[in-house]
Amino acid sequence: MTQWIQAEDFSLSQATTITGIRFWAFQLAPQAYAGSIVWRIYDNAGTTPGANVLFSGVFNGGFTNEGPGACCGADQLRFDIGTNFNLNAGSYWLGLHNGPLTTTTREEFYWQTRANNATLRGREDATPFDAGGWFDNGNEHAFQLLGRPTTVIPEPSTYALLATGFVALAVTARRRRRV
After folding, report:
1. How many CA atoms lie within 13 A of 158 on its CB side?
2. Could you give the C-alpha distances from 9 to 28, 109, 141, in angstroms and in order?
3. Residue 10 burial by CB count (10 A; 0-12/13-18/19+): exposed, middle or buried?
4. Most CB within 10 Å of its CB: which of 9, 44, 100, 145?
5. pLDDT tens digit sequence for 66-78
6. What is the pLDDT of residues 78-88, one digit of tens each?
7. Domain boundaries, given as residue ranges, for the chain
8. How far is 89 from 109, CA to CA, in rounded Å?
9. Is the CATH number 2.60.120 carried by domain 4-150?
10. How many other C-beta atoms are found inside a 10 Å radius of the C-beta of residue 40?
11. C-alpha count within 13 angstroms, C-beta hemisphere, residue 44
12. Shortest CA distance to 4 belongs to which of 102, 122, 97?
């Protein structure tokens, strides 16, 4: 995750407010974790992340070993994203990179893989980043988006239309009573 931006696809069945990201990782060399993770939500270009970064941020901090029973025996890294954002129903890509985007040398820090689940395989973008060179990395990655369904608030015109309908029903009912 240091020489590349690793990305994995996901789909939402309804509009959702995203509040955090959890993923599982492991390191094969001491100090391979650079102390921060750059995260991005990309639009979908079919079988690869799209050119548009919809939301992004940087997590600075450590990760915790969840011990026995954790996904895949790897360490779990969970972080709040700071400012929540909304995504509509649809398909997107989560991109992760170990350390600042200026770090491009290979370190032995990996996004844990998981069993195939009938979604697309992960993609990776090597430096120079964002040049459109996404390649199949042959893996699916373990992660979870944290959030809640977005509450849809009707527009004022919807309330006005609804009120007009109720008035029309009341007038019709009143006229029937007079007849």
Report:
1. 4
2. 25, 20, 9
3. middle
4. 9
5. 544 445 556 667 7
6. 777 777 899 99
7. 4-150
8. 32
9. yes
10. 20
11. 16
12. 97
